[in-house]
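Task: sequence design from structure.
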């Protein structure tokens, strides 16, 4: 866990959890979505199944999402009140991939702040079928979140990195130290 705090200022924290993001009890979970926002495989499919059919109905009104951007919906049948959908880059090894991946985290956090969200859970965006190597994605995600927290010291938010296996958990633990 990494905390940032100062006198008379809110405190933001970063945590690591291993497990199913759809079962977390937090204000918002982040969906590693595809551009259509209409569901898919992996985390995206799991979130759509757990949230129920009203999520798909709302997503149809959003007109998709560009890579690196984020959009918000209700959480429906989830414990989380909101779902923030973001589209990660399909890995090519380019510098643009790094920028777009970092944008996923910062744009999701921007939406969280705009909507009064004080706890948010992120999956490993782009690390599944989009092929981003977890060893490259983890430092980018932690750096993006840390920089956002540093720029928004006036806002208290808990950030949870949700890991799907022990390897990803170890990478987050090492990076957060």
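Answer:
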């Amino acid at each position: 866990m990494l905390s940032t705090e100062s006198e008379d200022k809110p405190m933001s924290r970063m945590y690591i959890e291993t497990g199913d993001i759809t079962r977390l009890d937090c204000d918002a979970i982040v969906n590693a979505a595809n551009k259509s926002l209409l569901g898919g495989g992996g985390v995206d499919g799991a979130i759509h199944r757990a949230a129920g059919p009203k999520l798909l109905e709302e997503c149809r009104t959003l007109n998709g999402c560009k890579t690196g951007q984020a959009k918000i919906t209700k959480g429906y049948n989830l414990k989380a009140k909101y779902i923030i959908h973001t589209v990660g880059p399909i890995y090519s090894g380019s510098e643009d991939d790094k920028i777009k991946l970092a944008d996923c985290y910062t744009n999701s956090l921007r939406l969280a702040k705009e909507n009064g969200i004080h706890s948010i859970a992120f999956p490993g965006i782009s690390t599944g079928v989009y092929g981003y190597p977890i060893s490259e994605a983890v430092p980018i995600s932690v750096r993006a979140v840390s920089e956002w927290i540093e720029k928004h010291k006036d806002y208290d938010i808990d950030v949870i990195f949700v890991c799907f296996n022990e390897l990803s958990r170890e990478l987050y633990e090492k990076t957060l130290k």
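The first helix runs from residue 42 to 51.
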